[in-house]
Amino acid sequence: MPLNAINVNQESPQTILLVEDEFAVANDLQIILKKAGYRVSGIAFTVEKALEIIHQQRPDLVLLDIHLKGAQTGIDLAWQLSKEAIPFVYLSANTNTSILEQAKMTKPYGFLVKPFREKDVLVALEIAHYRHAHSIELQVRQEQALQIKLTDALSERSNWEQRLLTVARLFQPYIPFDYMVLGPEREPTQNAFRSYSFFRIGLDDYQTIGTNTFLQMTSLSMEKYQQILSQVPYDGEALYNGADFVAICRQNPLKALIAKTFRLESNLTIPLKTAQNGTFYVSFFSRQPDTYQPNHLALLLRMQPSLTLTVDRLLAFDKIEQLSEQLRQENTYLLEEVKTGANFEEIIGTSPSLLAVFNSIEQVAPTDYTVLIQGETGTGKELIARAVHNRSTRKTKALIKLNCAALPTNLIESELFGHEKGAFTGAVDKRVGKFELAHGGTIFLDEIGELPLELQPKLLRVLQEKEIERVGGKGSIYCDVRVIAATNRDLHQEVIAGRFRQDLFYRLNVFPINLPPLRDRREDLIPLANFFLAKIAKKLGKRLTGLSKTSLEQLQNYHWPGNIRELEHLLERAAIMSTTPEIFLRESLTTHSISTPLASQSTTFVKPFDQAERDNVLAALKQANYRIRGKGGAAELLNIKPTTLEAKMIRMDIKRSKSAD
Ligand SMILES: Nc1ncnc2c1ncn2[C@@H]1O[C@H](COP(=O)(O)OP(=O)(O)OP(=O)(O)O)[C@@H](O)[C@H]1O
């Protein structure tokens, strides 16, 4: 019954139903009541008749005898009346203690013992009315308090899980539960929000059961769980006790699973239609088979509008948090990019071959042409890419970098194009790909030669159509991105070997820039060495005046397989070791390069390229005592980035037999 249908201020109940099978008594009562101004809605001799009258016209109060004609007693009817919140007063001659005990359990508003006086009846009715009105007033106040507290739960500066726990706690005094589920009907693919369950483990203690914990407790895989969720039928507002609960569990595999896992025997559920047209369930479970009564459901229905509002606002807060987290991530990424960004002036060198490269940069930068930078490892390809971006009209937008060699194949696609939430196992949140991040700016695809063949058509499509599709996404997203790619492989050779698509090669090779190796521009060596020494001196806080004459000669005579990166690392090592401002190279410039022994191998013994590369990686790992990073690590010996080496190791299925990093 809706609360506002009860007039709590009325002076006396207007209509009274008499349930009495002794006609004389019923008649006497009718006369007394009418004289006192009440209206008698009917006289029923049986429970069935009483229910019939109640359904036609709801009385304000029922006077009922315990012993009645028919199979059911007044106590049976009393249980029905309390479910429907109709107050009642017993009227009986029976003083048997067991019957009295049973009657007391139904919480009557009064008890009249036959024979009764007129005055007793009228006083009993007055008291019953007062108590009933008072209890309604109390209920109204309690519900108002609950609504206020639900609204307060919104302003909690806590996460989604904590807020839902607060909501669960608030309900416990009103609707007892051992397990409560709050969450969207489908998760995690179709809704951005996770559902949480709260398992009562103490008076006010709850264990939060998130999706992962639930999967662990039920030993289910995510796939199986998703499958179960897809079989869950729509559940309207309902209560299930005892046999009803057993029956609903047969239809609803999720309820059955929850019931089995937490030994639950009754359930009360209400769906809320959220503003985003989703369904959000509030579901209570109890270990008792008869916990939920119509008054609980009635309370929930009365609370439905404010609950829906609460959930809508919680969802909105969560969405805002997610969006700002995404922005934070993108911002951090961009800031890092900016911090590490170098400008044109930091490219050291005046050799004719490098000046030719500068010319190319000047020419191509203002256009939107795709640039392909080719050169050995460590020759400064990334620096050139930045210079092109910094001199283009896109310079105020981001330069986003992706190293195609540093990621396992299955992640590159989502790194490049992003993914929708739930697109694959582990895609817990939506992710914006690098192409989207680079919108309006430039994307730098380093080590493009390592891009797996199966992804090459997708990249080709972006270059041709300027559209990307997120993994698991439904539509295309327009991306205005300039592409700069770099490789230390001979891409043309890769095409011939069938490892790189010809059509993609032509798309990328619109404006090639070839960076000469350091050994072919020896005039840049000394300026580069001085530049690095100044940088290192600043970093180490040491005074360094330069390299000794013999050291300079050593540099000039070396063939620099690792190019400028190798030079930089060598000088860093020497500066750290040096005890004087003038630096003397102590290490032999052939020893730390593993290329030398390979180069000195018999030229008649030629290994396939892949095998040679694998052997080289293994040799470097061994020489570095299986250390990848840092000074003297395998990455440095190979003159490649540690992340690149790690990706190569995964691809070649090389495991580190010792962990020294
Ligand atoms: N001309 C240059 N002037 C100053 N520093 C340079 C120059 N060329 C390269 N460097 C420095 O040498 C290091 C290696 O350069 P970079 O990472 O650009 O090489 P890369 O060709 O992209 O290497 P990889 O093929 O391994 O990706 C960087 O620290 C870079 O700043």
Automatic annotation (TrEMBL):
Domain Sigma-54 factor interaction: residue ranges: 347-576
One GO BP: phosphorelay signal transduction system
Example GO molecular function: ATP binding
Domain Response regulatory: 15-129
Organism domain of life: Bacteria
Alphabetically ordered keywords of this record: ATP-binding, DNA-binding, Nucleotide-binding, Phosphoprotein, Transcription, Transcription regulation
4-aspartylphosphate modified-residue sites: 65
Protein name, UniProt field: Sigma 54-interacting transcriptional regulator
Organism this protein belongs to: Spirosoma aureum
